[in-house]
Amino acid sequence: MTLERLLRPVLQPFLDTTTSLEEARYAIFGAPLDATASHRSGSRFAPDAIRRASLTMESYSLRSGIDAEDITIADIGNVFGLESVEDLNKIEEVLHLLLGAGKIPVMMGGEHTVSLASLRALEPDLVVSFDAHMDLRDTLFGERMSHGTFMRRAMEELDFDLVLVGCRAVSREELEFVLSESRVNVVSSRDLSRGDPEAWTRALMDWMTVASTVYVTIDMDVVDPASAPAVGNPSPEGIGVSMLLDLIQVCMGAEVVGLDLTEVSPHYDSGLTATQAAYILLESVYFYERLVL
Predict the structure, then answer these.
(1) Which residues of 128-156 are buried (b: 16+ CB within 10 A; e: fewer)?
(2) Pairing between strand 73-79 and 7-8?
């Protein structure tokens, strides 16, 4: 199957880019799956909302010293026909094709379940998940496949270490699973707020050094809802955007094989969360680009 059959082009590409996929190092695309929302639905509208927000941003980064003209990124559109979790194979196929073409995939969800497709396709050694939730339940409302269970399914299917960063909304079941599973490391939002930030930076660096391939996934509810209210499951006591970017910067090494950002439900505010999401995605790409310049 070709990318043309899996994707639908968009009128307003991210950063208004006109770069072709052949010329680009990064391929950004939307995965607007919105099938298992347990609180607020609407994440299917996120990719286009993030694109619109990106058009109004200044593109020079004071963090990295990089501008949009320094990167080659192609917006290849949205995966077509994502009606249920049974359609995750369509995202997997997109990832396989991008991997074969030597591109770094940047995915915009959709609900967080879409990350399972990336993990299946890319099979990383280490997953770093920035999320208010662990997503390690065995079932959620009787369903084994959902935004709250996908990481449990991933750990059952695949062999990787997991670092959960920013967690604070968890179940007893998940805590018991974490205690029984040596592959999981947890850095809660309370840990980050009360501890030495540099200590957690060093810990992340240590986890990164033992992995040959890394996947980074960002659920926007990791951010405090005061800064990002339009998410599917907001939870108090989140981290700030600046802290999140500091931590992402540590993760964006040459070992990274893919990146995603999920769970924006844009209709629950007037554009703030989509703007934060676009900024976080752009800075994350810049962090990676700085390594290869």
Answers:
(1) bbbbbbbbbbeebeeeebbbbbbbbbbbe
(2) antiparallel
For 275, phi and psi rounded to 5 degrees?
A: -65, -45
Task: Quote the pLDDT of residue 51.
Answer: 98
Query: Among 34, 30, 35, 24, which Cα is nearest to 10's?
Result: 30
- Determine the pLDDT at residue 62: 96
Residue 147: is its pLDDT beyond 70? yes
Q: What is the DSSP annotation of 198-214?
A: HHHHHHHHHHHHT-SSE
Q: What's the CATH code, domain 3-292?
A: 3.40.800.10
Residue 123 backbone class (left: φ over 0; alpha: ψ -120 to 50; beta: rest): left
Residue 197 is predicted with a pLDDT of 76
Count CB atoms within 10 A of the CB of residue 96: 14
Instruction: Give 190-218 pLDDT, tens digit per residue.
Output: 999 887 878 888 889 999 888 999 999 99
Q: Which residues are CB-neighbours of 151 under 8 A, at least 6 positions away?
A: 115, 116, 127, 129, 134, 135, 136, 162
Q: What is the pLDDT of residue 293?
A: 64
Taking CA atoms, 136 is separated from 8, 139, 162, in Å, by 32, 9, 11
The residue ranges of every structural domain in the chain are: 3-292
Whether 209 and 251 have beta carbons less than 8 Å apart is answered as: no
**Residue 136 corresponds to which tokens in the numbers above?**
């390690």
Model pLDDT for residues 69-87, shown as the tens digit of each residue: 999 999 999 999 999 999 9
Enclosing H/E stretch for 99: helix 88-100
Sheet holding 256-262, edge to edge: 7-8, 73-79, 26-31, 104-109, 256-262, 214-219, 126-130, 161-167, 184-188
